[in-house]
Predict the 3D structure of the following.
Amino acid sequence: MKQFGIKISIVQLGAIQTESVSVMNEPMLVLSKDGPYECIANAIVRGNEKFHDGSPGTQPNAIAKTISKAIRSRNPKTRYAAGKLAGQTFFMRRWLSDKMFDRTTLECSGQPIPSIRRSTNFPSHCCRQICIW
């Protein structure tokens, strides 16, 4: 893109104070009830509750200011961090391998950690182990 004069920046978002989590959680639980994704949906909701620990996220206008700053800069940074915990995510993304980053993200969000299992028996409860055949 550089040869076309286009500069690209990535804005790593953290927790933003919106209603998206509350709007997403209830329908996800209702739609997954008694289905194969029920335990994963429950884990995601628990992770969301843990991540959004009652402390407010970043106001959307602060995110807009970061994006505006990147747009108006003559020489924008390649990456910007914006929002609660975005800096920590940047740090982990930079220093951890892809697999370790994914594992850490899953652990922090309360989701089950995938593991490899050489068996044709499906586990009795998917929240304990996700099998990859």
